[in-house]
Specification:
With 733 residues, this protein is of the alpha/beta class. Helix content is 62%, strand content 10%. The strands form four sheets. A six-stranded mixed beta sheet has the order 9-12-13-6-14-15, sandwiched between helices.
Length: 733
């Protein structure tokens, strides 16, 4: 599993900012159900009466409450007489018109007692009053918002003064033991009545409270939305930044790969790891910031607030969580193995697609379109089958979660209705409990989704880790040496052996020769004799298994790869051109080459003729891979590119195979003049290409079977003579 710590470290400030906004978003989401509960409980059920202890009371109402209170001293401390000389009088008279009536005699909250203590004292006194009236009348109805009117208050004041002390004391004791929700409802009815007596508009009270709470809900919602947008932006920026750095590191690592590493990782697999797998990491990091960090806030906060709302219904949440965990574990066990298979099948599909697209001419030539269609269809069906299985698992998961959440809502409503009937909770509290329980379940749902996605991302992380942690078979020395300032280019093979990784035997055996500066050394042999492998050892595409290769006496393994390859102009067996134009391709090895230099290189490589025929000349476009030029033109451009570099060592790996004999001869003649002071090594199949070389090396099954000039080898090397005779008649030889 790849460790992302060093990739996340540059984004710590963004992460801290994201966590801050997540906390703000979570607090906003947790606060909304509480506001909704207040709107239902107070704004609707209590007609907007927030406190049981009104801001102002008439002297008659205050005396009545004191008579039925079990803490008369607290009430007297909470309220004090209000006179017209006080500053507070005008404000209260404006809000409550009856305050200025001569017979009203107002008292107001003094502020010496906490509002909560005053509310409890008032609601107990009001409940005791109701219980006393019930005992006198022999009925048990509770007081509602509409059962008393302002006009009935004088009769009420007169009636309560006649309540016997025994009944009053029993009512006070009963009120002290009554449930809080019943006391609150009775207190709201009387408080509204007292506000009416003071001249307040009940509808205005209700609308004012609902509008205030609604405004708070709107502000909290906007704050949560802004925080959510900020979190999304920061999470996306962090995920994209980490993905960019991962791609950079993977690409830079691949750039350091030798042929041995490319033999281990296919091109299609490396492309998939750089794109699809990194995208998986980006997505999972984005979701971790947005979901996994948000889920604990919602889960823990929702559970705590749900317990504060009602403890008895918390069993429902616990049962739902256990059910969710069971489903999550089952899905995890089923889906995890499939995710591992999924990425390998994507690799396989990319590989087949790449082979078919690059090999289209061959496929058409051999008429195997039907076979390749079946091969592609099989890879596609394998991937489709696993993808459909994973998607079906995910498809089943969401309806199950929805069913669980809907069932929980039903159970909470059923259980809450009984509690409401018993007076243990209010309707708003039940509604808030439903929302808190949904928050807890959604938090676990987020975690469940992450448990589904993390296995796939972990597979992608391991695949990326395989590339980043891959030990390079060819590395630069810790203390590199350097070539002399005036590099001659003398290449010496000293008892060189080479074996491919994992092979049981060497493919090159005890190779020793010297390619002198200013000379052309040719290498020829049967197919599979190791010619290209030998050439690839010089730029260290592979490292020798035994022996050493030196340039001007310096072991090539003791200098950096960059310095080594700066001395080499390579023309590969298969010419590779890049998208752009002809000039950009010729300057690929030396960006500062002048127009005259690239023109001279194209003349030597015999590319001048077809370049001049193009309307745009050296600025003619080259398609990706050089698909808009022929094989011979591609080879000549590749040769010209190497010549522009002006290197002391030139390596031509069968680079003249696509040229006709006339062009081949003209190119070799011009090349000899241009590379007169450089070391030239040519791998070729045609005798005519190498017969004028200063030295010819004949390879046979990885060993040197002969070495010398053309005439010497015809006399002394049977293998060379067989190759020569197979290509030309005895007389021509």
């Amino acid at each position: 599993m790849i460790r992302l710590r060093r990739y996340i470290k540059p984004y710590l400030l963004l992460l801290l900012a994201a966590f801050f906004f997540l906390f703000v978003q979570g607090m906003a989401d947790l606060y909304l159900p509480n506001l909704m509960s207040d709107m239902v409980n107070v704004g609707i059920q209590r007609s907007g009466v927030e406190h049981n202890a009104p801001e102002v009371l008439s002297s008659d109402a205050f005396s009545m409450l004191c008579r039925f209170s079990d803490d008369e001293d607290l009430l007297k401390k909470a309220y004090e007489p209000l006179s017209s000389e006080q500053e507070r009088y005008k404000a209260l008279a404006e809000a409550y018109p009856s305050v200025s009536d001569p017979g009203y005699q107002p008292v107001r909250l003094s502020g010496k007692v906490l509002q909560e203590e005053a509310d409890k004292a008032v609601e107990k006194a009001e409940a005791a009053l109701v219980f006393s009236l019930q005992k006198l009348s022999g009925r048990s109805e509770t007081v509602s918002n509409t059962s008393l009117t302002r006009e009935a208050l004088p009769e009420l004041y007169a009636a309560v003064s006649m309540v016997p002390s025994l009944i009053r004391e029993e009512a006070i004791a009963e009120a002290a033991e009554t449930d809080e929700s019943i006391l609150s409802g009775t207190g709201a009815a009387f408080s509204l009545l007292f506000l009416k007596e003071a001249g307040a508009d009940p509808d205005a009270v209700r609308i004012r409270y609902i509008a205030g709470v609604g405004g708070k809900m709107l502000l909290v919602t906007i704050l949560g939305a802004i925080a959510s947008l900020c979190v999304s932006f920061l999470a996306a920026k962090t995920g994209a930044g980490v993905a960019r750095r991962l791609r950079e590191d993977v690409f830079q690592k691949v750039e350091q790969f030798s042929h041995a590493e490319f033999d281990r990782f296919s091109t299609a697999s490396l492309i998939n790891r750089t794109t699809n797998d990194v995208t998986q990491i980006q997505n999972i990091l984005n979701m971790i910031i947005r979901m996994v960090c948000y889920a604990p806030i919602m889960g823990i906060g929702g559970a705590v607030l749900a317990l504060q709302t009602n403890v008895s219904m918390s069993r429902i949440i616990i049962a739902a969580i256990l059910l969710l965990l069971t489903i999550m574990i089952v899905v995890f066990i089923i889906a995890m193995p499939k995710f591992k298979i999924l990425q390998s099948l994507i690799d396989r599909l990319n590989l087949v697609t790449r082979e078919i697209l690059t090999g289209t001419p061959v496929i058409r030539a051999f008429g195997t379109e039907a076979h390749e269609e079946k091969r592609f269809d099989q890879a596609n069906q394998d991937l489709t089958g696993v993808t459909l299985f994973v998607n079906r698992v995910m498809t089943v998961l969401m309806p199950l979660m929805t069913l669980i959440m809907s069932s929980i809502s039903v159970v909470i409503v059923w259980s809450g209705s009984h509690l409401i009937d018993a007076g243990e909770i209010q309707i708003g509290d039940m509604m808030a409990f439903i929302q808190y329980s949904m928050m807890v379940i959604i938090a676990f749902l987020f975690i469940a989704v992450m448990f589904i996605m993390i296995p796939r991302a972990s597979v992608s992380a391991m695949r990326i880790s395989e590339v980043l942690d891959c030990e390079l078979s060819i590395t630069d020395p810790p203390q590199p040496e350097h070539f002399p300032e005036d590099v001659k280019g003398r290449v010496c093979f000293d008892h060189v052996c080479f074996r491919y990784q994992g092979a049981s035997e060497d493919v090159l055996h005890d190779i020793s020769f010297t390619a002198e500066a200013g000379e052309t050394t040719a290498i020829i042999g049967m197919t599979g004799s190791g010619k290209s492998t030998l050439i690839h050892l010089i730029p260290r595409f592979y490292d020798v298994t035994a022996g050493q290769i030196t340039i001007d006496g310096v072991d090539i393994r003791r200098v950096t790869q960059h310095e080594l390859r700066e001395q080499i102009g390579l023309v590969p067996q298969k010419g590779v051109l890049f998208s752009g134009d002809i000039a950009s391709n010729l300057r690929y090895g030396r960006r500062d080459a002048t127009e005259e230099e690239i023109a001279e290189a194209s003349r030597i490589s015999q590319a001048e003729e077809f370049i001049s025929e193009k309307p745009e000349g050296f600025h003619s476009p080259i398609a990706q891979g050089g698909t808009n030029v022929s094989g011979g033109q591609k080879q000549r451009l590749a040769i010209a590119r190497a010549l522009v570099k002006c290197s002391p060592v030139y390596l031509f790996d069968d680079s003249f195979s696509a040229l006709d004999f006339k062009t081949d001869a003209a190119l070799r003649t011009a090349l000899k003049k241009h590379t007169g002071h450089s070391t030239v090594l040519i791998v070729a199949q045609r005798i005519s290409t190498i017969m004028y070389a200063d030295k010819i090396i004949v390879l046979d099954r990885g060993r040197i079977a002969g070495m010398g000039t053309h005439n010497q080898l015809l006399k002394d090397c049977e293998i060379y003579r067989e190759i020569a005779v197979s290509q030309n008649s005895d007389r021509e030889v």
